[in-house]
Design a protein that fits this description.
Helices cover 28% and strands 31% of the residues. The protein is α/β, with parallel strands linked by helices and 221 residues long. It is globular.
Length: 221
């Protein structure tokens, strides 16, 4: 699969995703049989509609992992919650800051502020797929939250199998280097949460979106 995604003129993920955030059409390769449109317009608009159902689940100081251009981080700040967005893409961090929120260029596995003291960790927009290993990512989330913390995790609908793929972005004829991405759906979230030392406190549907609330084993969330 990676051979099919590689091209001589490839650039870093950050460079190609930055172009997408600046408004250039972008497509995702490798996740489906055919290329799909990267839904950047959904991320660059203000938080609206069912975004607020996810935000309603956030309590206290909240870490927004893979914040992108910051619509969720900014909405948390507008609600009066202490919030920090992290993203590996400089343009994403800049756009989040422009919205009036705080953001840092960090990988989730880097040393982060408030280690072990976040009341909520937010993984919206399928960001539980970051790195291609949801168990590893959720174990890291468990390290970041308090003993009574919670993770608000957007997952795929029922019937969508758990998958791990190599993917790439393509924008203005330039392709990113391949990266690992996972899809985690409702049917598998309980198993993955257990392996990560968490449990599912509840799963709800909001229109076409599904969100699971994960808490430490023995915790109330």
């Amino acid at each position: 699969m990676t051979d099919q995604l590689n091209r001589p003129d490839e650039m870093s993920f950050s460079e190609v995703f930055s172009d997408a955030l600046r408004g250039h059409p972008c497509q995702v390769l490798g996740l489906d049989a055919e290329p799909s449109v990267l839904p950047v317009e959904d991320w660059t608009r203000p938080a609206e509609g069912h975004d607020h159902a996810l935000l309603d689940l956030c309590r206290g100081a909240t870490l927004d992992i893979g914040c992108g251009p910051g619509r969720m981080t900014a909405a948390l700040v507008q609600r009066g919650l202490p919030a920090l967005g992290i993203d590996v893409v400089p343009e994403a961090v800049s756009q989040t800051v422009e919205r009036g929120a705080t953001a840092m260029r960090r990988d989730v596995f880097d040393r982060l502020p408030r280690e072990g003291r976040w009341s909520t960790v937010l993984l919206a927009d399928g960001n539980v797929g970051i790195g291609g290993d949801p168990v590893q990512l959720l174990r890291r989330v468990r390290e970041l939250m308090t003993a009574r913390g919670r993770a608000v995790v957007e997952v795929a609908p029922p019937g969508v199998p758990a998958t791990v793929s190599w993917a790439a972005l393509e924008c203005r004829g330039v392709r990113s280097r391949p990266f690992r991405w996972a899809v985690l759906g409702v049917d598998d979230v309980d198993r993955v949460a257990r392996e990560a030392g968490l449990r599912v406190a509840g799963t709800t549907q909001h229109g076409s979106r599904w969100v699971s609330l994960l808490v430490p084993r023995g915790g109330v969330g």
